[in-house]
Structure formats: C-alpha cells, structure tokens
Amino acid sequence: MPRRPRLFTLSSLTRAYQRNLKAFARATRPVRVKAKAPAKLRTVPLKVARAPRAARKPVPTRGEWMSGIAPGPAGARRFHVYVPLGLVLKPGEKLPLMVMLHGCGQTGRDLAAVSRMNRLAARERFLVLYPEQERLANAHGCWNWFERRNGRAQAEAATLLAAVDKVARRLPVDLARVAVAGLSAGASMAVLMAALYPHRFCAVAMHSGVAPGTADSAATALAAMHGRREAHLPALAVDAADVLPVGGAEPLLHPSDPAPLPPLLVVHGDADGVVSVRNAAATALLWADALGARAGAIRTLQRGQRYAMRVTEFKTRGRTVVALREVAGLAHAWSGGAANWPYSDPAGPDASALVWAFVARQFSPKK
Prior knowledge:
By secondary structure, this protein is an alpha/beta fold. It is built from 9 helices and 14 strands. Strand 11 (309-316) and strand 12 (319-327) form a beta hairpin.
C-alpha cells in the first residue's frame, strides 16, 4: 500500500482510543470456522478486472471493478467501484449509486465480501462505491467521524463526497439516486455525511454506528460508543460552513436554506459489545425529531431461523422517514453477512437486502 507522509501527530488521547478500540475488536471478533480463505478481489488502477469467485459459494453473477483515487481536504483516498457485468443502458439512462463505508479493521473489499452488496447490485442494476481509509490517517482503518473539533471529520466527509463526484464523472451515475451506508465507524461517517450534505443523498443507512454529533474528539468517542453521551446532530449552521466545497459539492444546511435530512435506516444488534445499542434508538429519535416524524407501534419480525428484529418506523405525512431495526442476539457484525468473515453474522436478517429495499423506496417515479 503506498503511503503518504504523516500530516499530523497523534495525541495521547487518540492513541488511547485506538488501543481501546483494538481491544474491543479482539473481544468481539467472531470465531472463524476453519475453511479456505476467500479469494482477494484484484483491482488495477483505472482499469477493469473481473471479480473472482467467493469461497464456498459461487458468485451467481460476475462483475467488473474500477479503481481510482480522489483528492480532497483530508488528502487522497483510494476507492473501488463495482459495476455489474453486461449492463446494457438505454439512451440517456443513469444508474443509482450505493456508497459503502467499511468499519475499523476492514477494507472496502472486506465489506464487499461480508455484505454481498454486489449480488444485489447485479440483480437490481446499481453501482457500488467502496472508499478506502488511509492507514496513515487512522492506524486501524477507522473513518475519523469523531474528530469534529479539529475539523478532520468534516474534511474526510468532503473527501468522500469528492470520490462520489469523481465516479459520477466517469460512470453513468444518477446523482438524484445516491445513497450512503456503513458499518461501525463507517456507519457514523455515513450519517455525518448525510447531515452535512443532505441534498446529495436520497437515503442513509447506519449499521452499528453513533449519531454524527455525539462525539467531537477521540476522548469523547469512547463514551459515545458506549452510549454514555447524549445524541446530537452536528451544529450544522456552523460546521457546514467550515467544510470546503469539493468537486462542485457544498453543504446545503445554511441558515438561509435549511435542507431536510435524508431518510434514515438504523440497524443494530442488542448484543453489541463495541457500540452500545442505545445509540440506535437515540439516533433514530434524533433524526425523526429533525424531520418532524412520529413513532409508530413497535413490531417484532422474524424470518425462518434468523434472529428476530424489533422494528419501529417513524412517519411524517404517511411516509416512513426513519426506520429502526434492533436485532436480537446480534453482536458487532454485519447482519446476515457472509460466513467465515470477521464482523459478519450470517444468522441475522439480511442487512444488505434491508438497506437496498429502504433506499429503493426513496426513488421517486420520475427518477
């Protein structure tokens, strides 16, 4: 992995956060079943390569990978884009884009293997963008969603948006149908991006994350992860103005032009020992309050032998704008993910299917 010069010196609080986060990850890492490791997806810069078959189960459809680098206020970030193989577009047709942000200790390609979002992309005809965190920006590969006090969180959000714009210039992306989802630190960064740039996303999904304004430093991040801080949205009228426009993008939450937050899906396990499930309900309530939505009756859903879910939907004018799904027995892992991978639990409801179904409901008939 090419490395760029270190642009900052980690404080003692940051080092303490990283040590604790690493300990949490080890404590909650799923036990691997002895099996042949899945093949790594190969990418060639600015070229296209076929995705190899996953371990144990053949990939039902093949696809192509494009890689690139997006510069921004936080420095350059690499990315990979999955393009379903054999797409035939109608004249002028553009496709939805799903942005997937990996968690700590993962790469974008790990999340692609765990979530199997590419299978849905091949079936439903959409593109998937997997940005990569630079290890010099965070030693454990975490997105720095919590570093709002020094501006690094906002800079990373702007850089990730620059990756979206770069992909949109190269591929037929419908900018009205861009959604962002993430796991753990990626989930927290996803909701931060949606809060800073609400006009750029038709929906956002937070899997095992924290509300975007609940922490503003490494020290407060640990308390926030454990559910010991009150959930907040960032002070958008101030913070958004501090984010530099990148690639034609600009925050829309100005005092004179308040944009509504995009619809939010929250998925979280009630056995999560890394990020407290209290963050799920707190974020859902915070988002719903900002959108003027009210909670409906709590329902329990279960499909087959998969874990049961407690479902709460928040509606305004008859439309669901926030959906909370708390999964019984799920730890810090992608629900319904591929077997034999860390941070993945195949016994949970299929989070990828839940995310895409929620996102697709936000598309207007005209799009």
